Sequence to fold (223 residues):
Amino acid sequence: MQDHIVKIKNISKLFITKSGPLELFTDVNITFSPSTSYALIGESGVGKSTLLHIASGLEKPSSGEVFFGDKNFWSLKASSQSFLRLNDTAIIFQQYNLIPCLNVKENIEFQSRVNNSYNSEYIEEIIEDLQITRLLGEWPESLSGGEQQRVAIARALAAQPKILFADEPTGSLDEKNSKLVLGMLLNINKKYNTSLVVITHSQAVASKLEVCLELKSKKVSYR
Ligand SMILES: Nc1ncnc2c1ncn2[C@@H]1O[C@H](COP(=O)(O)OP(=O)(O)OP(=O)(O)O)[C@@H](O)[C@H]1O
Ligand SMILES: [Mg+2]
Fold:
């Protein structure tokens, strides 16, 4: 078995902003191993979401390389990149990013339908666990923040990725739902050997994950 699902090598990211260049991080190296759970912590604005988007192949680094298995992601043609994003990864976005013209059920099934991992029994189980059955016919715009977050979680889990990236997945949830969601993520991690990367500001959440990475002063260190 390969030693990693995703590996990022010597990654730097620089944004050109109105007030000049903004260098978020330089020479970051992380190996995301199979079946392993990671917390990514760091102060607000330090670049955690950007790093997650780079590791998941959504955003291009300013320099460095991103490997999905042995494939150098940014040297692939666009169709191969899309295939890897769709099949190997799923993301729970900080802003949820539900598709406004699809109802809750269609949102949940979306990625699994496109990547052929659709499994109605499995999805039903997720929906019941997240207690969102009564929302299935609703439109995203009519949901509360916490409800949207749970739908985004269901969508990512339904896609059965090799690696699941979760950007503050419990940020809008109360304590009871936070525990439920973290339990589900850890359960998926163990049951299906899905690698898990969770951005969190919560020490309690970070302590439940196997490896803790901190982004600070433009570098990532193991805590
Ligand atoms: N496309 C962009 N263009 C310019 N600047 C950007 C862009 N995306 C992010 N930034 C800036 O990069 C910095 C890091 O943003 P990012 O969202 O990665 O931080 P974060 O660590 O996830 O913060 P939080 O904990 O608040 O979610 C911020 O100052 C942000 O304004
Ligand atoms: Mg963020």
Remarks:
- Residues 6-222 form a domain with the Rossmann fold fold (CATH 3.40.50.300).
- The helical segments are 48-55, 78-88, 104-114, 120-129, 145-158, 175-191, 203-206.
